[in-house]
Amino acid sequence: MARIGYARVSTLDQDLDGQVSRLTVEGCTLIRSEKVSGGSREGRTELATVIEFLRAGDELVVARLDRLGRDTRDVLNIIYEVEQRGAFVTVLDPHVSTQGPMGHVMLTVLGMVAQMERRFIRERQREGIMRAKASGVYAGGKRRLDRDRIRTMHADGVGPAAIARTLGCSRMQVYRVLRET
Q1: What are phi and psi of 14, to 5 degrees?
Q2: What is the pLDDT of residue 19?
Q3: What is the DSSP string of 103-168?
Q4: Catalytic site residue 10?
Q5: What values do phi and psi take at 56, rounded to 5?
Q6: 6 in helix, strand or coil?
Q7: Residue among 10, 21, 37, 170 flagged as catalytic
Q8: What's the CA gap between 128 and 148, in Å, rounded?
Q9: Which residues of the chain have pLDDT under 50?
């Protein structure tokens, strides 16, 4: 039986250290982490790797349920996939495990709360953006890709897939930048 930790933050500028430290203290022998939104399973390759790695009797450990996902259906699907492999999920804060009979009920309720919280965050964000636009101070989000470098590489004959690999982004992002011109 292995304790395998999974840590996630939503953006590149957030820090994983607190979650990783907590998972280490809890005795996780392997910890995978990623910086990607928990709004869906899309792009969460480390989570997919962890689930694929799980064997019967293993335990998937997360610091909080919202690190596993922000959508109730996704969280329940993840738990189902983990259990299909004969493993179980443990959330550290609050301490809940699918190993016990009440664990599923608690995780379902916590998943619903995480989903509701995500909706509130998006709603507050939209309201803040609308207020900032109305007062003329909204400048948009921070650009994460060097658009000039993408255009230069493309002009030098480098293909979108190679540009994406070099810059650590998706091909779709490269195509969007190239369409801007």
Answers
A1: -85, 160
A2: 95
A3: HHHHHHHHHHHHHHHHHHHHHHHHHHHHHHHHTT----SPP-S-HHHHHHHHHTT--HHHHHHHHT
A4: yes
A5: -55, 130
A6: strand
A7: 10
A8: 30
A9: none
